[in-house]
Amino acid sequence: MNFSDITLEQKQTALQELHQVKELFASRGWFPGTSGNLSVRVGDFQEDEFHFAVTASGKDKSVHTPEDYLFVDQNGKPCEATRLKPSAETLIHCEIYRKTGCGAIFHVHTIDNNLISEYYGKQGFVPAQGIELIKAFNIWEEDASISIPVLPNYAEIPRIAELVPGALDVSVPGILLRNHGIYAWGRNAFEAKRHLEAFEFIFEYTYKRLLLEAARPLK
């Protein structure tokens, strides 16, 4: 689908979804400074041609302006004439869309996801087992376990983007960057939000469990 074939209604729907999610996550303090980025795909998906709305670079996400978002193509290039620049990590969004065909991707920085990604960074994944919120990923087995991938946080974004395809797990809709933040995605904005909230619960749970275990007196 060409960008010109995408209707005004489709564009407005994507922007409204981003506005609502940005406002909610900002109220939770998930965008310290100008960190984090959000995107919602618009129109049909083809691996070699797709488009999405993404947060503009360097914006304070606790406020709303007419220049908070722009539309980009499968290579992260603006689809329309604009002075805005897409978020620096847009290339990572491109790779996730290309490999999953998802409908939305949300990336936030929190204390818990930073600490957990650093703690398990050398291991390359965060293990989680028997945590109720794993069910948010449609994994219903009793005492289910998952491994959440952790990628190195290189300064050069293309180096990170190159690693994304090999790290993807179809059953785990998220990737951590070490000491940086979580990318979570879903078929639509609602599902991506659910997945992100589940990951954040798992990270907080895991962090506090590690603290309890460290505080347990030796026998």
TrEMBL record:
Class II aldolase/adducin N-terminal domain: residues covered: 16-207
SMART domains: Aldolase_II
GO biological process, one term: L-methionine salvage from methylthioadenosine
Full protein name: Methylthioribulose-1-phosphate dehydratase
Entry keyword set: Amino-acid biosynthesis, Lyase, Metal-binding, Methionine biosynthesis, Zinc
Binding residues for Zn(2+): H107, H109
SUPFAM superfamilies: AraD/HMP-PK domain-like
Free-text cofactor note: Binds 1 zinc ion per subunit.
Cofactor: Zn(2+)
Reaction(s) this enzyme catalyzes, per UniProt: 5-(methylsulfanyl)-D-ribulose 1-phosphate = 5-methylsulfanyl-2,3-dioxopentyl phosphate + H2O
